[in-house]
Amino acid sequence: MARVHNFSAGPSALPEPVLREIADEMLEYPGAGMSVLEMSHRSAAYSDIIQDAEATLRRLLGIPDTYRVLFLQGGATLQFAGIPMNLMRTGRAGYLVTGLFSRLAAEEARRYGEVEVLASSEATGHDRIPDLAPVSERCAAGDLDYVYICQNNTIYGTQFHELPRTGAVPLVADVSSCLLMEPIDVARYGLLYAGAQKNAGVAGATVVIVREDLIGDAPTCPLTPSYMSYRRQADAHSMMNTPNTFGIYACGKVFRWVEREGGIAALERRNREKAAILYGLLDASHVFIPHAQPASRSIANVTFRCATPELDEAFIAGARERGIEGVRAHRSTGGMRASIYNAVTLDAVRALADWMEEFEDAHPEAACR
Ligand SMILES: *Cc1c(COP(=O)(O)O)cnc(C)c1O
């Protein structure tokens, strides 16, 4: 069977050259005489692998020397707890709730301290990024340990196109579904992190980039497991215990691929082109209804639906017949979602767009607006 066009939200498509390289090296990693899956994490070969992954990521993102890069396990979800455990020094943080993952992060943080919801898009079904001016005003009081955002809302298809101005309050961002899709200024953040299985690599590897002065001993949380201490992990270079050796290796391969493709700015151009094709179609459509408000649209996840669930099902079934997989949206929204991460090609997006146009022509009666 041929490879399909994979629009899955995560784990998601990987660049084909990366998969080939991993396959080529599976039995014998060059010079090591064994698979990376069999290799000691303390070996010289593996030390090169993890150091190269970090160095490549630093080059790609221009990470300042004052930031540490950690490769942890437990996905983005474990960092919902890791962040308050490490960063809630006085016990109060501000959260922007713009979807399911930021709501879950806020709920988890409530177990460790006081959480203040500074803005929410819940009232409008998370179809936009809320007004950020009140966030700046609230930050001026200077009593928040950090402000938390989910920069790209994977489920709802919205994205922060500008960051809240938090002044001296560190900004913490979940960038699980947008890391490496467009250039960012790392210095704007106190901490940013990503479960790697969307844009950066494979499941089980989590990248945390944290400003050195924020790494402490989690004083408000004495029962923090030592694994969860950013200080312990930074001191041990992510090797306090056996790390996800294969996951970090795969992330390193993806980072190198991004670099070969011309870096993040080159990928951004391609990503914007892919998004413009789908949003252009949605805006002109009489069958498809886009979910996200235009000013808040994500370049990573395009969310839409038809006028009826029956039409949604027909669209998804027809997509599958055409080798287009993963367009069913998250169960909490219904409808469709096309995740068009870095590894999803322009050709794949064109195949999806062709099917959308064909579907549209086949349903002249389905006028929804
Ligand atoms: C997928 C996702 C998560 C959850 O990631 P896990 O690694 O499964 O814990 C959290 N935040 C965002 C933005 C996501 O896209």
**Helix percent band:** 25-40%
Round the mean pLDDT to the nearest integer and report it. Answer: 96
How much is the radius of gyration in Å? 21 Å
How many helix segments? 10
Whole-Å distance between the termini?
39 Å
Tally of strands:
14
Report the sheet with the most strands, covering strand number, pairing sense and barrel closure.
Answer: 7 strands, mixed
Pick out the low-confidence regions.
none
What sequence of helices (H) and strands (E) makes up the elements?
A: EHHEHEHEHEEEEEEHHHEEHEEH
Instruction: Indicate the proportion of strand residues.
Output: 15-25%
Provide the list of bound ligands, each named once. Answer: pyridoxal-5'-phosphate
Shape: globular
For the largest sheet, list the strands in their spatial order: 2-10-9-8-5-3-4
Give the structural class: alpha/beta
Task: Please specify the SSE layout and strand pairing.
Elements: E1 5-6, H1 16-24, H2 44-61, E2 67-72, H3 75-87, E3 92-97, H4 100-109, E4 114-120, H5 133-139, E5 147-150, E6 152-153, E7 158-159, E8 171-174, E9 191-195, E10 206-211, H6 230-235, H7 245-260, H8 264-284, E11 288-290, E12 301-306, H9 309-321, E13 324-325, E14 336-339, H10 346-362
Parallel strand pairs: 1-13, 3-4, 3-5, 5-8, 8-9
Antiparallel strand pairs: 2-10, 6-7, 9-10, 11-12, 12-14
The structure holds pyridoxal-5'-phosphate.
Residues 10, 75-77, 101, 150, 154, 174, 176-177, 195, 198 line the site of pyridoxal-5'-phosphate.
Explain how this protein is built.
- With 369 residues, this protein is of the alpha/beta class.
- It has helices spanning 16-24, 44-61, 75-87, 100-109, 133-139, 230-235, 245-260, 264-284, 309-321, 346-362; strands spanning 5-6, 67-72, 92-97, 114-120, 147-150, 152-153, 158-159, 171-174, 191-195, 206-211, 288-290, 301-306, 324-325, 336-339.
- The longest helix has 21 residues, at 264-284.
- It is globular, with a radius of gyration of 21 Å.
- 46% of the residues are buried.
- The structure holds pyridoxal-5'-phosphate.
- Pyridoxal-5'-phosphate binds at residues 10, 75-77, 101, 150, 154, 174, 176-177, 195, 198.
